[in-house]
Design brief:
By secondary structure, the chain is of the alpha+beta class. The protein has three helices and six strands; from the N terminus they run αβαβββββα. It has a domain of 78 residues. 22% of the residues lie in helices and 20% in strands.
């Protein structure tokens, strides 16, 4: 009896990405290599990128270009850097700045990754 071999629909396991990884990719695509915050609530966070990504995804704020470097900033690996011209801005202040990343930008990427 001849055995039929059919290829598995997924030749290798799908790599799952966290929301922080998807957010990092979106930031890099926009040419952003570091970001600050215009809110003190993230300064004690252990995973700033993930926490900011969650709030952007939930529409609580945006990533915007600010006129002066922020006092506190981090690179995309979470290491502290001197300052950044890009920052998480709460939604109530977003109209004052040039918005670069909104919730829609992240939501558009999530269907590509069923698990984040």
């Amino acid at each position: 009896m001849e055995r039929l071999l059919t290829p598995h629909p997924f030749p290798r396991p799908m790599a799952m990405k966290t929301l922080a990884q998807v957010f990092r990719e979106v930031l890099q695509e926009k040419g952003i290599d570091s970001f600050g915050v215009l809110s003190k609530r993230y300064r004690k966070s252990k995973n700033k990128l993930q926490d900011v990504a969650v709030d952007v995804l939930n529409g609580k704020g945006v990533i915007a270009e600010v006129p002066e470097p922020t006092a506190v900033a981090w690179d995309l690996n979470g290491s502290r850097v001197k300052g950044s011209r890009y920052a998480y801005v709460p939604g109530c202040m977003a109209e004052k700045f040039k918005v670069l990343i909104r919730a829609e930008d992240l939501k558009a990427r999530i269907p590509e990754w069923p698990y984040f």
